[in-house]
Amino acid sequence: MAQASDALQEFVADLKRAPKRILETAFRTGPPSTDRTRSTFVFGNVFLHLHAVRTHRWSLRWTTTLGLGIATAAAFLITLVTGVMLMFYYKPYPEVAYESMKDIHFVVPTGRLIRNLHRWAAHVMVITVILHMARAFYTAAYRKPREFNWLIGIALLVVTLALSFTGYLLPWDQLAFWAITIGANIAESPREVTDALGITEYFDPGGLQKLLLLGSDEVGEEALIRFYLLHVMLLPLVLAALLAVHFWRIRKDGGLAKPADADARLAARREQETYPVFTEAPVKTYHLAAIVRGRTPAVGKGPENTVPSMPHLFYAELGVMMLTLLVCLALSVVSDAPLKELANPSVPENPAKAPWYFLGVQELVSYSAFMGGIGIPVIALLGLALIPYLDRETAGTGEWFGGPGGWRLVRFSAVLGTSAAVMIEAVAIRFGWLREWFPDVPQLIVTAVNPGTLLTLVYAAWSVWCVKRFQSARAGALALFTCFLCGFVVLTVIGTYFRGPNWEFYWSPAYWPKH
Amino acid sequence: MTIQAKPQRSRLDPAPVPRRDWLGLSALGTMAGALLFGLIGLLRLPKAAVLASPSKRFRVELPQALAPGEAFVPPGRNVAIFRDEQGVWAISTVCTHLGCIVRPAADGFECPCHGSRFRSDGTVTRGPAPRPLPWLKVSTAGDAVIVDEAAAVPQGTKVA
Q: Is the separation of the CB atoms in A374 and A203 below 8 Å?
């Protein structure tokens, strides 16, 4: 009898202890209060262990990254969560899709806010991914051993834009329908060249691209289900996989890029403020470290100037994530996502504009569909991808505008890139282009010689001159990247604010004719 | 004592590949081939053999009061139909640039998307459109005309 009561008491005690025990077994090593438990906190957690256990203090200076990569990842997480929420109500079928969007916007509790958040986080993600690329470029962080991660980053940029583009069709309103019609016809635009050469009958990559994208020869139910599949399934999976590789390689490539003299400069700034290193002897050595190539922080030298990632890095990351969420929320409260009237295949929107980040490309396609929509973007992407393999210098790694030429060259290239774009656009807007001057000009010449290709040539020439002048591929890259960035901004601004009905130039939307 | 020369292997008489290596390589090669073949099959799926779009041929009666050279656009169709003494003809109103729908104007057509302009026979006069608007196949059936949006005919083909 006594025995039974003991067992019962023990049972009750275990029951009482259970919540505490569950916590203890979930976080086996206890709260992260010592160096050792801070380390186990990181590598004992599947979600955190992409991070190194300790982080160099140079990586934690906010001017090193401006938090742009984490902001991009945070924006992606927001679109992921809100996107899944929207899938509760969205139905991918023409007209029904439009009705369900109206339901989400006007009937579903918090539907409007979730939809606004999804849209604004997508916009924020595009902005931050571009800025993040610019940061990595200007601090020369793409150099050895980070070349391949730069390529993954470019793939991520393309997937991000593809996600935005595929999401644009889903509301099935006028805006969506005509933006996708234009997009699908850009995919078809290699016909501009094959037609001019008279070989479309035998070799028609443009037609095939459009057919694969739309599943039909017009934007209809087949196109909608394809875009839906790409948007909610294929592209997010690809993005998540690439993102995992991108993060993992940051660590495998030895953390963030930093100048060779980073330690000395940190020491000069703050004397002996370094967090105490290893207050406890290690209880475990990592034999794997022996086969990892050179650059991990702990090989060959002591972990000076590093601090535990928990809390220093994680709290910084959390801060950036909360800031991103706050910005997206604020924008969502202030500004609603648009929903125009139901798609009408007989009456185009006038002007029919793509989302803002494609308006630079749309400005270029208003001269030549193939060059503006495919030729120049492909050249730009190839150029970006080649940068780390052409610039194999070491001067200026990890420094803003590091390398020969430096900030002066970037400033000058910005002025040159902006004014060249403005001037060439001004000529085309004021005086028209080849076909207005010579009505019988062959299409191939219009394709080859237009404001977009001329601008690309000017930029390339300037970049080559810089390579020669500074005897440095990095100087050429600085010049070219800056010029392209400025050209992109100029064309986007013109496409957004200065183009009205019939793609005519207007000083302001206030002057658009009423209709 | 005789010295035996080492047999010199030539390109025509290569060193024999060990049998296991050869079997291993051919197994890998077969696997790669099979996977590639399967992949091509997978990639073939998204290109439909029959397109799900509605018929491109339609029949329409022209209004009695249609003036010569005046455009008639049947509702829901992207075609402009004209009539004069010589006969009836139809011109596609889908812009050859990026697929927007052009509007019939006084002296031809104008595209709202990127400002292309066409003469009334479809020829491009300005803007980025790479090709003229195609003329479409028309046949008459009593008072009505039948237009096939999928079949182009040479510019200037009028059907009496």
A: no
Q: How far is residue A349's CA from residue B154's CA, in Å, rounded to a whole number? A: 30
Token digits for B87? 């006969």
Is-cis flag, bond preceding B68, omega within 30?
no
A74 lies in a domain?
Answer: yes
A313, A51 contact by CB (below 8 A): yes
* Nearest-angstrom CA–CA distance, A447 and A468: 30
Are A337 and A417 found together in one domain?
Answer: no
How confident is the model over B18-37, as pLDDT tens digits?
Answer: 888 889 999 999 999 999 99
Q: Are residues A243 and A388 in the same domain?
A: no
Identify all chain B residues contacting A181, using CB atoms and an 8 Å cutoff: 98-100
DSSP state string for B81-95: EEEETTEEEEEE-B-
The ipTM estimated for the assembled molecules is 0.82
Q: Is residue A413 classed as helix, strand or coil in its secondary structure?
A: helix
Q: What is the pLDDT of residue A299?
A: 44
CB contact under 8 A, B130 and A196: yes
Determine the distance in angstroms separating the CA of B75 from the nearest CA of chain A, rounded to an integer.
8
- Substitution target from B43, B58, B100 for chain A, most A beta carbons within 10 A: B100
Look up the pTM and report it: 0.89
CA gap A511, A514 in Å, rounded: 9
**List of residues 6+ apart from A78 with CB closer than 8 A:** A117, A118, A121, A324, A325, A328
User: Which of A291, A311, A343 is a domain's end point?
Assistant: A343
B57-153 has which fold? Rieske Iron-sulfur Protein (2.102.10)
Q: Where are the beta strands (DSSP E) in A107-192?
A: none
**pLDDT, tens only, A59-103:** 888 889 999 999 999 999 999 999 999 999 999 999 999 999 999
**Residue A244 belongs to what domain range?**
34-343
Chain A residues in contact with B119 by the CB 8 A cut-off are none
- Indicate the residue type of B121: D
Long-range CB contacts (within 8 A, 24+) of A378-384: A379/A456, A380/A484, A381/A154, A381/A158, A383/A480, A383/A484, A384/A133, A384/A154, A384/A481
